[in-house]
Amino acid sequence: MSGVAFDDILQQAEQLNTGLDGGAELPRVQRNIQQLLDAGQRLRSKTSTAQDNAQPQINAALLLSSKGQDVPKISDRLKTLTSASETFEPLDTVGDTDIEGFLRNERENAILAVVEEQKQRTFLDVEKRHWQTRLSEWDTEKQQLLNKLIGADGSLNFSREVSEHMSTSVYKTSGNVSVNPRSTMDQWELNYARQVHIYNDRILDGGIHLNLADLCRAAAEKMKDVNVTALWKMVKCVTDVQASIGSSLISRRTSKPMLHNLVNQALTYLEKAYLDYMQTCVYARPHIAQLGGAPGTINLVKSFLRVQPANTVQGYEDGDVDGAPLWAVIFYCMRSGDLDAAVEVVKHNEHIIPEFSMWMQEYVREGKKLSSSSENKMKIQYKRSVRTSPDPYKTAVYCIVGRCDINDVHGEVAQKAEDYLWLKLSQVVVDESSAHPDVLTLSRFQKLLVEDYGESHFNAMSNPLLYFQILFLTCQFEKAIEFLSRFENLRSHATHVALALHSHELLLTADSLHAKMITTEAADESPLTVVERLNLSRLVMLYTRKFEITDPREALNYFHFLRNIQTDGQSLFIHCTSELVRETGEFEMLLGRLNADGSRKPGAVDKYCAGDTKLLIAKVASDTEAKGLNEDAVYLYDLCGKHDQTLALLNRLLCPVISSSDNSHPDRARLKSMALTIAERYRNQSVETSRNVRSTFHLLLDLLVFFDLYHANRVEQALDVVNELQMLPSTMEQVQSKVSIFKTYSDEIRQSISDILLATMTLLTKRCKLQQNLNKSVTTKSGDSVCTNARRYARSLITFAGMLPYHLPGDATARLVQLEVQMT
């Protein structure tokens, strides 16, 4: 064995081992190969991470140093601030003797306070902006949901449910929907629609206006529904009010005479209704009533008290009238609206109640009011003795005549909501100067019913018609209609009540189409009454949305009520009709159609437009074009005589399909047929149109013929057509003149120039190849000239394409050159 001996190697290894155990600084570590590899990888990753973290710090230091900032000092200051508190709390105070530390501490506390204040302000601002955005989005979403609430099939129903015990037909949709199986209108809606049609026809014919409330009442009587019939009796009674003079609707509705008349009409309705009730009770039990005697209210009241004795009377004060309590007879005479009968009873017993007899006669003579002195005397007497009387009818009569104790509900005599309403309305004073708490003004009574009592007190969800009646009779028409419209099965009644009031100019409507159903404006505030506005347009559109697709004629009748409401500078009738036409697509039925001689056959809208149907059709055409329904817009522009718009829009439609074939593009054949029909009719009728639009239209028609021949591979005929159009140069001498002419073409022609050039070049190539194939069999000089002319033609086309002041598609020029090369 050569080299170092084994003993020497062993000795060297022992020396190395001794050196490792010789007290070196590093401890001895025993690791295998895999552990060494893992340790190396960890050291390498730490090194790379440290380098990556150090690079942004280096960049920051360079940036701050370039601005004259000392990086180490800034770092120390930041460490001092962050080490003080990570929540920006004030730093701890230092000793009073350490002035330098105190000042430094105060400065840092001030900085922290500013940072904390700015942080809180930022958080509040972000939160405020967030909620403003969310609320705005929610309002938009609610508007969209409301507009889509009632679908065409009427299957969606998100309105509040009516309790199950309400079994009257008012709350049930009739099973017999319509004679027309396509209609989505129920029987109530059909009956109302017929009455609205009659009402509008009378207006459009220029006759005497009918009373819409009377017509709707007739519809309710036809349906034999007692509740709805009573509703329309109430509406009819209130709408018979004598209109007051004012400069605007809001001033008339809030005027003292108008409100006074409305309250009187409400009392009249309640009194007539109760008189009918008394007669029904008496005639139902004649053997107990024992009516007999002279006809009149007094005998009726006495008979009524026999049928329904005044059991609540604990004592008959001041005697009786033929066995009936005196004050009960007086009360029911007043309750039935016969004040003369009440005066007669009082006079007959004047010896018993002399003072009240005087006051009662004055009350009737002065139109249901007393003088201030008489009213004060009556209130004094009421407080002294009448208030503690055991006879509830006596206290009720005193409170009505003398307007005493407006807080007493008189539950013993006013056992129903209608009785309570009549009693309180009898005490109401329509006066803006009465701020005394003992005076019941109309506005105070309205707020009492809505704000203090509200829907829950009157169980409005179970008996919505009752709550509607309470609101309606207290001159809160808009709120009453809005409440009733929440119920799907009652929305038809609410809508027609609104239309009846609107026709009598008694309904306050919102100015904006996009307003809420009920809005309150500061400018409308009145000390006499609560003033709110109803979004009538929204209510009508919500109501008609259910059936406008299947019954567009009926929808038009309702839109006619919106003719005087403006939105975006135009009549809301036009706006709604335009949308109706677009949604239904019934152009001929609604707008009419053109006859062969160019005259227009009237449509359903003609009777509403008073000769301005073409303006309406033009509006529909404009809206249809804006929605992208261009073919329908062409038909509508043509229908209303807007010939320039017809051809201009038709040119835009023809441009994208002109170079295609009828088989490759499904719209091309239809558009070509439409264009040819219009062109022939305009020519036969000598229709005047703009020269530029007309020339573009006819040029596009010629190009349609050219491309038809091109796709049919009829080379010579296609080249003859394009040569007759004189759009393209056939020689180099014509290039400049054709370029100049090209500048006068419209955009529709310019957009098609690349297809025209490629088609013409393809035809020339085919002609040349056909001629070359022919020359192989028969050599003629004419064949050479054909190819030469084709090459000359092709060269002029390439030159023309390069000189055009129009950007051709990227591959168009390359394809032209390739086709030219194929001719060689």
Please characterize this protein's 3D structure.
β7 and β8 form a beta hairpin. The chain is built from 37 helices and eight strands. The chain is 63% helix and 2% strand. By secondary structure, it is mainly α. The relative contact order is 0.04. The two termini are 90 Å apart. The longest helix is centred in the N-terminal third of the chain and has 49 residues, at 99-147. It has five domains: 183-240 and 476-562, no CATH class; 256-457, no CATH class; 566-641, no CATH class; 643-712, no CATH class; 730-824, no CATH class. The protein has a two-stranded antiparallel ribbon with strand order 1-2. The chain has a two-stranded antiparallel ribbon with strand order 3-4. The chain has a two-stranded antiparallel ribbon with strand order 5-6. Residues 150-181 have low confidence and may be disordered.
Question: What's a quick, concise take on this entry?
Answer:
This protein has 824 residues and is mainly α.
The main β sheet shows up as: 2 strands, antiparallel
Radius of gyration: 47 Å
Strand composition percent: under 5%
Number of domains: 5
**Spatial order of the strands forming the largest sheet:** 1-2
Give the helix tally: 37
Strand element count: 8
Report the average pLDDT across residues.
81
What spatial form do the alpha-carbon principal axes imply? flat
Helix-strand category: mainly alpha
Indicate the low-confidence ranges by residue numbers: 150-181
Instruction: Give the termini separation.
Output: 90 Å
Q: Bin the helical content.
A: 55-70%
